[in-house]
Amino acid sequence: MTKPRKPDAMKDSFSSLPANGGAVRSDLMVPAEGNFTRPRRFENEQRQTGKESDLILDNDTVEALTTPYVPQLTVPAAAPRDLWDLLHLQEPGTDQHILDGSQAAEDFRETEVSRAFDLLRTRLRQTAKQNGWTNIAVASPTAGCGNTFTAANLAASLSRVPSSRTVLMDFNMRNPGLAKALDMDASLTGDLRDFLAGDVAISDYILRVSDTLAVGLTDETHRDASEIMQDPATAASLAEMRAALRPDIVLYDMPPLLSFDDTAAFLPQLDGVLLVSDGTQTMAKHLAECERILDGQVPLLGVILNRARASSIERF
Asked: Which is nearest to 194 in space by CA: 17, 20, 36?
């Protein structure tokens, strides 16, 4: 059994530097002067203003200037504003069976597969709450295992819990598929790369599907996906998103673990991983290699068997 790691308080902290180099605003994620755009976060924080002075200082002045300043009062930063209700609403289309809004979705709710996702949802919520976890990845050893199908249906099941909040992110920058699976238009939002860099505001990228579900979509591929995953700006942008939207769980639909190093590069940002295997193509050696990659990095929460033979499914 993998020993859960302790929550890292630094992972969920965030800070931003205002463009004018002045005092740090505590709420950079709400509109300023009519728009939501934010400056790129990682600029030189030690900005120099003015010109060097030729003033000659005496010894007493030098001592006073070089004596460390000890603040007498620390004022806590204001909590970021809750932006959930400010997200743009986009309802899913009818050409999908996952989210409410189509007859296919209503029919799917009556299937054993849907009930299996509900069971997985409840176990995941209990485990996440017990350990204080938020960031969960849905990954697979190789392509074609049903990773996006699993992530989307799990998010839909989570969203049916009243007064909950789930954010579903398409982080498969090699072959994004959530927009198609949910019949939604990813072109109506800002670019994922710009959002992760801090150049697109949360409310201009994340779409709200319902009172309990929001999604981050993309329809563009990126060859440097691994580098984007490891950029400090990515961690900062996601921490800001969690602080502003206050989700119970953030699900990340990731690329195949053995095909690229994207998911491995993103492991430090995760609290747990759900692994999706395919009964028609996943081999024992694939699962063993995935466990080796995850070992000591992040807990493996379970292996989901997709496309299992009907004869191998035990019914209760």
From this structure: 36
